[in-house]
Specification:
The protein is globular and about 50 Å long. The protein is built from 9 helices and 6 strands; from the N terminus they run αααβααβααβαββαβ. The termini are far apart. The protein has one domain: Rossmann fold. Strand 5, helix 9 and strand 6 form a beta-alpha-beta unit. It has a 4-stranded parallel β-sheet. A two-stranded antiparallel sheet has the order 3-4. About 40% of the residues lie in helices and about 15% in strands. Helix 8 runs parallel beside helix 9. With about 230 residues, the chain is an alpha/beta fold.
């Protein structure tokens, strides 16, 4: 069996999803060096952090955080790209589990009762095969011991990509595309809304607004990554 593993490894080498270095036998998905050097924000320990500030005056959130910083062509961006566009789902699951453990230690997320992923339009989900926010969001929910609900918030329209759009154009692009079905499932609940990367926050502003239209709801948000400054 070990010989077979060695032969497979010769033709299909196991590479770190962040830096593309060869993984050692005791390493999985992300090499030890990258794991130890992941640029964590620690925003979950501070209420008034840069992600929270992004939404001041726009949407009444309870708390907001992002797990990692990313920079252009950096390891975190590559890691998320591998997960989101190359189907390396275990990378997303691993990040979700680590993020969930951090959120458990935060006083600002202790009262969260439900995790809801920002939805993809059905056509985009069909083409990609999965919703990346649902993949890592499920791991966050499992670690925190709460349910993930993917049948409450829906994206009614397929929108154009947000890349290269201005802040106003991004908001305009998604301002009326989200709606809530089965509202009784979330009435009076504190919801953790999760998405992969924050840029202008337009998508979260639109989706959180839909959730906050249900009586008694409170919304906190969590992203896998935010741009480094």
């Amino acid at each position: 069996m070990r010989l077979l593993d060695d032969v497979i490894g010769l033709f299909f080498p196991r590479l770190c999803n962040a830096c593309q270095a060869l993984l050692l036998k005791n390493e999985e998905i992300i090499c030890t060096r990258c794991l130890l050097s992941l640029p964590r924000t620690n925003f979950h320990l501070h209420h008034d952090n840069p992600v929270m500030e992004t939404f001041w005056g726009r949407i009444p959130l309870e708390s907001a955080t992002a797990y990692l910083y990313f920079s252009k062509a950096g390891h975190v961006q590559h890691l998320i790209h591998q997960f989101k566009y190359k189907g390396q789902l275990e990378a997303g699951r691993m990040l979700g589990r680590m993020f969930g453990k951090d959120l458990l230690q935060s006083p600002y997320f202790k009262s969260v009762e439900i995790v809801i992923p920002v939805p993809l339009h059905w056509s985009k989900k069909k083409a990609r095969g999965f919703n990346q926010s649902e993949i890592f969001g499920q791991e966050i929910a499992t670690v925190m011991g709460i349910p993930l609900l993917s049948d409450v918030l829906i994206r009614e329209k397929a929108t154009a990509t947000q890349t290269r759009k201005s802040r106003f154009e991004r908001w305009q692009n998604v301002s009326y595309v989200f709606s809530v079905i089965n509202p009784a499932k979330i009435e009076g609940k504190h919801i953790l809304l999760v998405d992969d990367v924050i840029t202008t926050g337009a998508t979260i502003e639109a989706s959180a607004s839909a959730l906050l239209g249900v009586p008694g709801t409170k919304v906190s948000v969590a992203f896998l990554a935010t741009a480094s400054h």
